[in-house]
Amino acid sequence: MNPSYLVHRKSGSSYLFRSVIPLDLQPLLETKQFQLSLGCGILRQSRRLSFYLNQVTQSVYNSIRENPDMKKLTISDIKDILKSELEKSKRHVQHYYLGTNRFSETDRLKSILNNQEQEGQFRQQLKHELQTNPERNEPQSQSSIRPTRL
User: Fold this and answer.
1) 61-97 as b/e, with b when 16 or more CB fall inside 10 Å?
2) Which site in 39, 117, 126, 141 is 20 to 30 Å from 60, CA atoms measured?
3) What's this model's pTM, rounded to 2 decimal places?
């Protein structure tokens, strides 16, 4: 069953987030509900997005109740807040789950060069240590290795 804040008008179109405005705020906001397109036609993703937007909306409603300065907000202001949160959420999904936009090409090349530089320094350090401590490079003699009996 879909939550009441997730609306789908017709197949093939994107889902909508719907918020029913609490009775005590309806006179202030001058409407009973509003809707916002999620820009997503996939039910599973839309459920997650709408759940998150519902939490943000409830937080905004509570802020309006508690803070006199917030009483100046309009429905378009609330929608702007939600659009901003929706965009952040979509960027988060794209960045972490889809693996895109992780690095710019220049950052990737800088990282490769840095790794090559560190590898070169490590090889030089290892070579120096082997030259200064040749006994570390000798294999263990057979006499020091004792077979274990079971």
Assistant:
1) beebeeeeeeeebeeeebbebbeebbeebeeeeeeee
2) 39
3) 0.60
